[in-house]
Specification:
Blueprint: H1 3-22, H2 24-38, H3 48-52, H4 54-73, H5 77-82, H6 84-111, H7 119-145, H8 149-163, H9 165-172, H10 174-179, H11 185-209
Helix pairs in contact: 1-4, 2-4, 4-6, 6-7, 7-8, 7-11, 8-11, 9-11
């Protein structure tokens, strides 16, 4: 294998690896939460809502991990081109997992008790993001059924960016961790919203920066 080929393969997997790394902390936290539920860990004020109704949070965690990993692989163009059947099958899995993530997230935002640190602002943010993700997935499916690949990819990127907000929120909470203070209700809302906002901006930058992802303008 030539040096150029090695560099090309590394470049092909650089973005998927970065996306999986971004989702690593929330994925580990999710696995820890599943372990608590599976081993009947002590119930506290922080986790009582999950023990009272575990199905939504289990579905959300499992769906989110699957969505993050499978979605990251879709950002390897050479891999997609070499395995078109895999791409189509993975796309179906991705849409299903994404719907589970969005619907379970909306359910939890509405029916779980809101932690005091979150407050109504974060709950509203979650409702907006969950709805936007679900709508993006529906529009992506509608676009691919019309064979409109550009719009399909654009909406899938938007949905993935919203789902990966939990990873970026680890970074937006870093200033509080570095300062050694816990965020208040306002700080929490700003940090959470900033995580989603950064991902949305990056997604739109990618979509508008690549001609193949821009939907054609109407004549």
């Amino acid at each position: 294998m030539t040096t150029n080929a090695v560099h090309y393969r590394r470049g092909t997997w650089r973005i998927p690896a970065a996306l999986i790394a971004l989702s690593l902390v929330p994925s580990i936290a999710g696995v820890f939460r599943l372990g608590q539920l599976a081993t009947n860990a002590p119930v506290t004020a922080e986790n009582a809502r999950f023990f009272a109704m575990p199905l939504p949070v289990v579905a959300h965690i499992v769906g989110a991990i699957l969505y993050a990993v499978v979605g990251a692989l879709q950002f390897a163009p050479a891999f997609r081109r070499r395995r078109p059947r895999w791409h189509r099958l993975a796309g179906r899995v991705l849409v299903g997992a994404g719907v589970i993530v969005a619907v379970s997230g909306l359910w939890m935002a509405v029916f779980y008790d809101v932690p005091p640190v979150d407050g109504p602002a974060v709950e509203i943010e979650r409702l907006i993001v969950g709805t936007a993700m679900l709508v993006s997935l529906v529009l992506a499916v509608a676009a691919i059924r019309r064979r409109d690949i550009a719009r399909h990819r654009a909406w899938m990127i938007r949905a993935y960016a919203l789902a990966l907000g939990a990873g970026t929120q680890v970074l937006t909470h870093l200033p509080f961790a570095i300062a050694g203070v816990a965020p208040g209700v306002t700080g929490r809302a700003v940090a959470m919203g900033a995580g989603w906002a950064v991902n949305v901006v990056v997604a739109e930058w990618i979509i508008r920066g690549r001609p193949g992802l821009r939907a054609p303008r109407p004549a």
